Amino acid sequence: CLRRTALLPSAAICKVYRFQTVDGKWMLVREQMEECTLSFSIPRQLLSLYIQEDMKRIQELRELGELSPHWDNLRKEVMTRYGGIISSYQDTLAELDKITGPSFKPSCCKAQKSLEFIPVNLHTQRMRVTCPRKADAFYDIVTVGAPAAHFQGFKCGGLQRLLSRYEAEKKSFSTAYQCIYYSPEHTAKAQEVLSTMSHLHPLIASLADQLLQAAQEHSSPGLKDALKNLSDKVRPHRTPNLHHHSGYPFSSLGNQLKDENAHCWTGFTNINKLVVISGAASEQMNMSARHISVRKHSCKITSITLIPSLCASSSPPTHLALSPGDWREQLCPLVTRLKECVTEVVERAKRAMTFVLLQEAACSIPQGLLLQQRRDVVFSQALAALSCGFIMRLYAGMEDKGFLRQLHLVGLVAQFESLLSTYSEEIGMLEDMEIGISDLNRVVFRITEAKTDDLSDLQPLVCGRRDHVTVEVPLPRLVFQSLPEEIKEGKPVRVFPVLFNVGINEQQTIAERFGDISLQERINQKNFEILEAYYKSLSEKVPLECLPCFQTQTDLKELLETLGQNVVTKKKKNVEILWLAGTICRRLNGIRFTSCKSAKDRTSMSVTLEQCALLRDEHQLSKDYFIRALDCMRREGCRIENVQKNIRCRKYAFNMLQLMAFPKCYRPPEGTYGKVDS
After folding, report:
1. Tens digit of each residue's pLDDT (9 = 90 or more) over 126-164
2. What's an example of a GO molecular-function annotation for this chain (predicted)?
3. Nearest alpha carbon to residue 672 among 579, 578, 608, 598
């Protein structure tokens, strides 16, 4: 009930089966497949964030002030490009707001411009198993078309290839545009500094006001606490050496700006370090709790210093001869100077970082911004699927103390299974998907208490910026109160996305014989290492007894070793990689996703196979019933209904020739397939 309230519309497709176990008894199996409202709500929120971020970027470029003609022209061009993106995103958002009806994008609409941010055919599926003398078991999976920019096409490849080519070309562009080349890491660092500065300024001003309030109340403990808070908040920015640490060659900035504006940048061109906290001081004031010192030279900030000087006494030292009324009066000039220094530091840092980003944008237009749009599209689809899976998994584990402990101590693994081939257009889709799944590392979830239990107050909220997205998940009050204190206090929950791909169709046969499968091999090897690192972190922080119990007694470590061996083994269509990765994910309390081009045909074969394998391995499905159960699910179950929803035809889009190339266990029963347009 709660899961439906948070995620889903009321419509659902249910199928019920009865299968025989090895001991002659009967199990009851219930399949339930549903659309997810997040298919549209998450992309809408992301589009709004993108628009706000790009409008802010334009405003920051305007605030750079007067530039030389060369840089002013480049600024205008960059602002025009950003304006075009904003206009396009606003149009898309307006089109999405008009849509009513089903909460999913059918496969036949995957290349539709107005729906490009929406994931293809996103559905949740739950299998509930009821056996004699055993508690009911639930197995969840999310199915979604591979996150990819279908409207933009794959003629030149997908994101992974396009970004690699772009970074190589950008170095030559930077010379032509008289720019400095900045790597993606440098650009991300500049954006991080801008974000930090925008939060730091009001935060320090607020804490400084608290300090004055404590002084006015003549409270030595209050002064001590206020100064500690101020020091703690500023300490993380202690020595951000903007020239050396961030890799930005600021010495060139002065020459690139108009002479009359060069003084705006001297704080960065001539000072190797911008020290926000240091041990130096020229003016000092000893207070009972601490003393503050600020040093300023010719309006160029060198340092702002907060020096702890704790005093055991709860009253002002006698040598200061301060009367009670003197506390605020004596402190006020220093706090004012502190605020002035912080303002100047923030303004200089913002201008410097904005100019860095201007250079990066100038030498990368139009290709860089086009790639950013493609990345936005792919990330939107991936985030909608991840949010759906996270909330589904959260509600399913709400009464599992071990799971909740794992949630805040380590986070969850999100395992994406892909059945795309590494040939023709699908290699471009896989290149898009690889970057989209990797970009989910920028996402954290924060669980909050909903204002009410109304549906509108239980919808997840997306906030942040492109390089750091937070999804807030509101829970009903009673549910929220049962969570560990760390989660209730707002600790962000991390998700570790991993992607494993094994192509199974006739195009993969061509790739294996005449093409190149190195992309698939690299993806599987890289993501195996991520999964292995996650397991190591989990085993160090959470007792393995907290993980779910399965009938299969194979040790997790042994499963990982077997997966590692399969990843490096040269074997055609090695679907055992997918089986092992899926098993490990479930054993780790993870979130399972399955994808192909449209999450319709190959995905249906995979989901039904996984469900029957779980019935066999965990619920003693009779071997004589395995193939019968598999054929029954594929012929009468939820997945054939999914095909019907997408293309209005109850047939999988395969022909006999194609199926000859499929692994045998991925072939549908006779009479359920036929070549159709999808």
Report:
1. 999 999 878 899 999 999 999 999 999 999 999 999 999
2. phosphatidylinositol-3,4-bisphosphate 4-phosphatase activity
3. 608
Question: Would 23 be classed as within a structural domain?
Answer: yes
Same domain? 193 vs 224: yes
Listed residues 322, 338, 363: the one ending a domain: 363
Asked whether residue 89 is assigned to any structural domain, the reply reads: no
Phi/psi-derived region of residue 133, left when phi > 0, alpha when psi is between -120 and 50, beta in every other case: left
pLDDT tens digits, 630-647: 999 999 999 999 999 999
Q: Do 490 and 357 belong to one domain?
A: no
The three state secondary structure string of 104-130 is CECHHHCCCHHHCCCCECCEEEEEEEE
For the chain, helix (H) and strand (E) counts, in that order, are 22, 12
User: pLDDT for 287-302, tens place per residue?
Assistant: 222 333 333 333 333 3
- Kindly state whether residues 425 and 358 are assigned to the same domain: no
Q: Where are the beta strands (DSSP E) in 520-590?
A: none
Q: What does the pLDDT look like over 73-91, one tens digit per residue?
A: 989 999 999 999 999 999 9
CA distance 550 to 268: 59
**Distance (Å, whole) CA 64 – CA 270:** 19
Phi, psi of 486 (to 5 degrees): -60, -40
- Give yes or no: residues 382 and 305 share one domain: no
What φ, ψ does residue 649 adopt, rounded to 5°?
Answer: -150, 135
Long-range pairs of 255-260 with CB within 8 A, sequence gap ≥ 24 = 256/68, 256/71, 256/178, 256/355, 257/67, 257/68, 257/71, 257/355, 258/66, 258/67, 258/68, 260/66
Residue-by-residue DSSP string for 346-393: HHHHHHHHHHHHHHHHHTTTTHHHHHHHHHHHHHHHHHHHHHHHHHHH
- Kindly state whether residues 307 and 406 are assigned to the same domain: no
Look up the domain containing 340 and give its range.
184-363
For 315, which DSSP code? S
Query: Do the domain assignments include residue 594?
Result: yes
**Statement to judge: residues 409 and 527 lie in one domain:** yes
- Whether 171 maps to a domain, the answer reads no
Q: Are residues 566 and 632 in the same domain?
A: yes
C-alpha 421/C-alpha 154 separation (Å) is 14
Query: pLDDT tens digits, residue range 429-479?
Result: 999 999 999 999 999 999 999 999 898 899 999 999 999 999 999 999 999
At what angle are helices 425-439 and 518-541 packed, to 10 degrees? 20
Q: Are residues 252 and 401 in the same domain?
A: no
User: 299 an active-site residue?
Assistant: no
Q: Final residue of a domain: which of 363, 396, 422?
A: 363
Pick from 476, 441, 397, 383: which is nearest to 142 by CA?
383
Beta-sheet pairing, 468-475 with 443-449 = parallel
Rounded Cα–Cα distance for residues 145 and 387 (Å) = 15
Nearest to 275 by CA among 299, 300, 244, 301: 301
DSSP letters of 426-493? HHHHHHHHHHHHHHGGGEEEEEEE-SSSSGGGGS-EEEEETTEEEEEEEE-HHHHHTS-HHHHTTPPE
Q: Is 635 exposed, middle or buried (0-12, 13-18, 19+ CB in 10 A)?
A: middle
pLDDT, mean over the chain? 83
Q: What is d(CA 87, CA 187) in angstroms, rounded to the nearest whole number?
A: 24
> How many domains does the structure of the chain reveal?
2
